[in-house]
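Figure 3 (text version): structure tokens given as input.
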């Protein structure tokens, strides 16, 4: 599993084609409080590129260009958090999107378990460890265990997406899923603006 760590930004010559898997690691789960530390990306080819975000005002022009490229689909698991924290810290709202968590909730209605670990186990029969999930991602020197954990979160997203698309098509819900993905930027802006805990669509 080739893992490449980049400090600050991806290089100019790193090219992705029609899709890229994306994930983030932060100092916590509060978008406005906890600093974005790492962005992981993969072309679905078995390799992963990890971008360690510098403290202070980040400058990630190459990464931002990739995330905003509308010819490249960005595949997330629970895109709402990743998109919100990247908008807040990098000033970029990724688009277009495929969220495997939303897709799973629409396709796998026989289950109430939609974590990435569950999807990887069920759909591609691989067991991944979540031991490093709560580790310190703000440290300057990430351990090999942290790098492997972070890479694992993007290496399987292409396969998971493809299997979920088949399930959604079988249930005639792919169009509904796409509509949900298109609305994600609005939910992210609401989250950043303070409406995260309030459903403005409720009575």
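Below: residues designed for each position.
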């Amino acid at each position: 599993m080739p893992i490449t760590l980049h400090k600050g930004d991806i290089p100019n010559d790193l090219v992705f084609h029609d899709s890229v898997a994306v994930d983030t690691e932060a100092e916590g789960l509060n978008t406005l409080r906890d600093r974005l530390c790492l962005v992981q990306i993969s072309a679905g080819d078995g390799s992963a590129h990890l971008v360690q975000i510098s403290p202070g005002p980040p400058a990630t022009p190459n990464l931002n260009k990739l995330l905003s490229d509308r010819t490249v689909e960005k595949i997330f698991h629970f895109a709402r958090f990743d998109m919100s924290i990247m908008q807040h810290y990098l000033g970029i709202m990724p688009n277009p999107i495929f969220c495997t968590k939303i897709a799973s909730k629409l396709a796998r209605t026989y289950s109430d378990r939609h974590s990435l670990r569950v999807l990887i186990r069920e759909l591609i029969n691989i067991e991944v460890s979540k031991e490093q999930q709560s580790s310190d991602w703000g440290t300057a020197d990430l351990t090999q265990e942290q790098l492997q954990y972070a890479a694992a979160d993007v290496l399987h997203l292409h396969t998971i997406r493809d299997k979920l698309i088949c399930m959604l098509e079988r249930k005639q819900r792919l169009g509904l899923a796409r509509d949900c993905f298109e609305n994600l930027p609005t939910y992210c802006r609401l989250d950043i603006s303070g409406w995260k805990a309030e459903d403005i669509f409720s009575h």
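The mean pLDDT is 94.
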